[in-house]
């Protein structure tokens, strides 16, 4: 399982955020984009996932809300060669097997930056290492520690806070709804009967939880939607993949697992 290769989808926005924190703190600090849900030009993706858009958005809100158009718009502000060199350097330092596609023009670069280029792939092991980089907990793994020391703490903190907001108010928050036709993705969303453990209780104890959601709408050989959540709390990290589900649903299962883990003696 750890060697399984998947499309990161919106988790790629975490890599873009790390690039901004490490090499373009001016963008991480000051860049804003007004997301109306529709693109500014033909180079951008045809829409944001959120109808009506995210409004006036900075990096923190774009990451917690997973705003496609904010990240896509960075194509005009980031040097493509420098970004790709950073990704190669990060992969060497962390031991990632990240596969990046060719990005010969601004349109493909915009699509890559917002996580919609599903030619980009990572292994589950890569996702674990990425989670260690952005975790609010102390990490002793060499490579991860070395990279974290190269990033100003304020910007690592910005990313960490945004991932906590993902659970509190962003794409991992709110009421869940049935997604797709898979029974295992629908039945747990129904209220539990008397004496049963409900799948998604109102109080999930999410105060220390953090993470990033992703919904991938294509597979290697055929169209296949799956949900991905990378995150944890201050003691535990986890990666959740749900076939025929979305990122929000993966996050809710992750929070359920974390809640049950806390209840164990």
Please name the defining characteristics of this protein.
single chain; 265 residues; alpha+beta; two-stranded antiparallel sheet; 11 helices; 7 strands
Write the layout of secondary structure elements.
Layout: E1 5-6, H1 12-23, H2 25-30, E2 33-35, E3 55-57, H3 59-65, H4 68-73, H5 80-94, H6 106-113, E4 122-123, H7 124-134, H8 144-149, H9 153-168, H10 183-186, E5 210-216, E6 226-232, E7 237-243, H11 247-263
Antiparallel strand pairs: 1-4, 2-3, 5-6, 6-7
Helix pairs in contact: 3-9
3D architecture notes:
- Strand 6 (226-232) and strand 7 (237-243) form a beta hairpin.
- The chain has helices at residues 12-23, 25-30, 59-65, 68-73, 80-94, 106-113, 124-134, 144-149, 153-168, 183-186, 247-263, and strands spanning 5-6, 33-35, 55-57, 122-123, 210-216, 226-232, 237-243.
- Helix 3 (59-65) runs parallel beside helix 9.
- It has a 3-stranded antiparallel beta sheet, with helices on both faces. It has a two-stranded antiparallel ribbon with strand order 1-4.
- It is globular.
- With 265 residues, it is of the alpha+beta class.
- It has 11 helices and 7 strands.
């Amino acid at each position: 399982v750890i060697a399984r290769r998947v499309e990161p989808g919106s988790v790629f926005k975490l890599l873009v955020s790390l690039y901004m924190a490490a090499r373009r703190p001016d963008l991480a600090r000051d860049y804003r984009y007004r997301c109306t849900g529709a693109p500014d030009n033909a180079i951008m993706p045809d829409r944001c996932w959120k109808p009506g858009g995210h409004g006036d958005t900075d990096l923190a809100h774009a990451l917690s809300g997973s705003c496609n158009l904010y990240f896509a718009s960075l194509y005009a502000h980031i040097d493509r060669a420098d970004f790709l060199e950073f990704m190669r350097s990060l992969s060497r330092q962390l031991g990632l097997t990240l596969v990046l596609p060719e990005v010969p023009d601004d349109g493909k670069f915009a699509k890559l930056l917002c996580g919609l280029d599903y030619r980009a792939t990572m292994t589950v092991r890569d996702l674990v290492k990425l989670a260690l980089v952005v975790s609010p907990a102390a990490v002793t793994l060499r490579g991860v520690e070395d990279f974290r020391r190269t990033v100003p703490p304020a910007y690592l903190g910005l990313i960490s806070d945004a991932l906590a907001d993902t659970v509190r108010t962003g794409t991992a928050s709110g009421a869940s709804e049935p997604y797709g036709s898979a029974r295992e993705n629908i039945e747990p969303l129904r209220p539990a009967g008397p004496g049963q453990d409900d799948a998604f209780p109102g109080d999930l104890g999410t105060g220390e939880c953090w993470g990033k959601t992703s919904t991938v709408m294509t597979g290697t050989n055929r169209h296949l939607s799956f949900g991905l959540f990378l995150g944890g709390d201050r003691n535990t990290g986890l990666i959740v993949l749900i076939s025929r589900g979305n990122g929000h649903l993966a996050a809710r299962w992750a929070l359920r697992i974390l809640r049950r883990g806390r209840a164990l003696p």
